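Z., the sequence and structure:
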Amino acid sequence: MARRGGRFADLPSVIEAAKRAPGAIPHASSGQGSIYHAVFVLLSRAANIELLHVPFTGGAPSLQALMANTVELAVLAPEEMAGLANAGEIRPLAVASAARIPGYPDVPTLRELGFDVVIENMKGLNAPAGLPDAIYTSLHDRFRQGMQAPAWKTFLDRTGAMDGYLDGPGYQRAIDNVLDSLKAALAK
C-alpha cells in the first residue's frame, strides 16, 4: 500500500528505489513480529533489499502514518484500507495472498511480480490440544455455519476480503507454512 501522490506507483519502483538506497524507505507494520511485519521481511529477503521498519500498535496507526506521509509503505488488511483505497487516497501495489483479491482484481500478487512470497492474515478458531472430538466437531460446525451466513458474505463483499475456509488440519498446515517461510528467511 502506498499513499496517492507518493513516489511509488507500483512495487517494481519500490524495489528499484530500495536497491539504490538500502534502508531508506520507511514502511509501517502493525508491530514487531506481526504478520504484516512478516510480509516485509519475506519480501525484503526475496527481493534482496533492505527497508526501514517502523512498527506501530495496529493497522489503524499504520494507516494513519501512511496518510500522514510518515511512512511510504504499509501492509494492511482489505477491510482496513478499503475505504481509502476505493476513494483513491491510497494505492494497493501488490497482495501477499496466493491469488488476487476479488475486490482488487487489477492488483497483482507478489508471486506474479516474481517474488515467491505468500502470507495471509489468517483468522481461525483455536482450542487446546486434546479437545474431545464432540466439542471439536461442534465448534467446527458452528464456525463453518457462521462463515456461510449472509452477514459474513456481506462483510466479504463490502471489504474485498476473501473467504479462505480451511478445516483444522488445513489451517495448521497453512500456519506451519508461514512459520517455515519466516524461519528460512530469517536464517539467511
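Residues 9 and 171 are 34 Å apart (CA to CA). Strands lie at 2-3, 26-29, 52-55, 73-74, 90-91.

Let me know what you think.
H.
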